[in-house]
Amino acid sequence: MPRDIPLGNGRILICFDKNYRIRDLYFPHVGQENHLSGGFCRFGVFGDEMFSWVGEEWKKELLYEEDSLVARVDLYHKDLALLITCHDAVDFHEDIYLREIVVENLLPARRQVRLFFTHDLNISGNSIGDTAAYDPGSGAIVHYKGSRYFLFSGMTANGEGISQFAVGVKHVGGKEGTFRDAEDGVLSGNAIAQGSVDSVISLHLELDAHATATAGYWMCAGQNWSEVRRLDSLVRHKHPGVLIQRTADYWRLWVRKEPLPSDHLPEPIETLYKRSLLILSTQIDWQGGIIAGNDSDVIQYNRDTYSYVWPRDGALVANALDLAGYPEYSRKFFAFAESVLGEEGYFLHKYNPDGSLASSWHPWVNGSEAQLPIQEDETALVLWALWQHFVLYRDIDFIKSLYRSLIKRSGDFMVSYRDEETGLPAASYDLWEERRGILSFTVAAVFGGLTAASLFCEVFGEREKARIYRKAASDIRDGASRYLWRDDLGRFCRMIQRTGEGSLEVDGTFDSSLWGLFAFGVYKADDPRITATMNALRERLWVSTQTGGMARCENDEYHRVSRDVTGNPWFISTLWLADYLISVASDREQLKAVEEILLWAVHHTLQSGVMAEQINPHTGEPLSVSPLTWSHATFVTTTQRYMIRLAEIESGKSTPRHEDWIGRLFAETCGAIHGACKVK
């Protein structure tokens, strides 16, 4: 089930599903230690001897307040005759989740309404050894295990605290959980339980006829009891509504600090652009790790999640943030990358947000032969993105700190890790993590990474090292032209790989990732070979249903729902087509197709603006992880490129990237690499 609303501050991440249940709770790292892990935090309402958990029988609208990370959730229940509006936020500064609830009585009579909040925690990912207890000092419920503490409390507008509470065991002896205790409107008052536990608290509101009443609810996260008590006192002193408002103000300032020149940008595109930036911020850990996606329901598909740092995804997200004017996030990511890079100069599959090595399905052996379990594009794209960052921000001291440990170490590895016959990068796993060989996308990424390494060496005066990297890049381009361009296909192939006998076998599958061949500078976008390839991809991979969009690759089986089409539409694949159209556009009319693709993306998000990885080709419903960080980053990047190209066309001038020393260096280096190629 998609996560309609993610809220976070870099240490806490809370995700809601479409039924307004909290489904994911991460602390103290984004994407690591999900303290729900299959549990739910529900919201229930009791009035006039009737009880209902907020769910399918309610009319619901889950949105964000404009340009902020404050959720606005409108709830209506006909039989209860109640209209409820909730505002939710994770405080931008403190580790506090807050909810302000306004309940409107639609009946012409005075009545009492009771609000119930459940906490089905599995602290640190499991329910073994949890404790939940009523704390008389704060008048709250505290769940804890080890150094993870979560305090839950609330109060009404007149300052009254929780009216009822109950703590008990769950999933033991046939017991579903203490949440069932709420359904008669009265809680037992049991004060402590240990093991597999859950809890419920209640707030009571007295409402006059056709009147409203307000309540606040919050969770404080910390590493000991005194810390969560301190945060609880802060909430009571400042008031939940005040903390929610200050958080809204902070994020509006944050997202509006680098406005788009939007005179010609349709409002829905600008709105999703800003929403994408805000959602990106929720998926980034305070130590710099950029998480691929935090939707724990995907665990049902492959018994693992997307809550990891893939260096490739992180590099492309960092590039999007750099383009949008948020270099502080990308600097933290590059520092994180430097800290996890192996001594040999390559990244392994993926990493946990705290920098430890994450789970993997890439083997270290193939039969009796050892192999590197890597996706080499991950190593290359970190360098590529770092150079793009330096072009924009010129932060020489920051780059100096990474020069030997990240740039040269990775560059040396890419020079050495080559296929002897073709000169191309040696075999590794592809960006989709499904096959091993010499992938066109990986080749393009390594070309871009080596070009970046060469440029950095020129900047730091190591011209011989720069020449070595340039030579490797030239050889790789020659290899791409000789082995990846296929006259028999009339386009580039997806991959070549060694057979058991050592000969080369061609995989001609249509794959949207061939976008990388022009995106990372191997070829210009208007090269006839790129034109032929992109036209073929558009013809074969565009989904021929009312939904539209580009499939990831031909006959894609990942989350496939229909044999009527070649695969599900992916946001990134569709936006890559827009990138190509931007690159070859020569007038405003040709950019209309790009605008249509951007609007396609807008129309296929959730109502809240969340973008999934892929969508159902017939219904347009989200599939796989939602939100996917990469999808939002690609929308940001494509929108930026669109605006730059539009400005160039309207002014009649190219972006002045070659007018200063760094621009001239880039032009000279690229000219030298391409000039040294034996195959044009």
Describe this structure in words.
With 680 residues, the protein is of the alpha+beta class. It contains 16 helices and 28 strands. It is elongated, with a radius of gyration of 27 Å. The two termini are 49 Å apart.
List descriptors.
five-stranded antiparallel beta sheet, alpha+beta, nine-stranded antiparallel beta sheet, 680 residues, 28 strands, 22% strand, elongated
General form: elongated
Overall mean confidence score, pLDDT? 95
C-alpha-based Rg, rounded: 27 Å
Count of DSSP E strands? 28
Which structural category do the helix and sheet elements fall into?
A: alpha+beta
Fraction of residues in helix: 25-40%
Query: In angstroms, what separates the terminal alpha carbons?
Result: 49 Å
Strand order of the largest sheet: 7-8-9-10-18-14-13-12-16
Low-confidence region ranges? none
Write a brief structural summary.
The chain is α+β, with helices and mostly antiparallel strands.
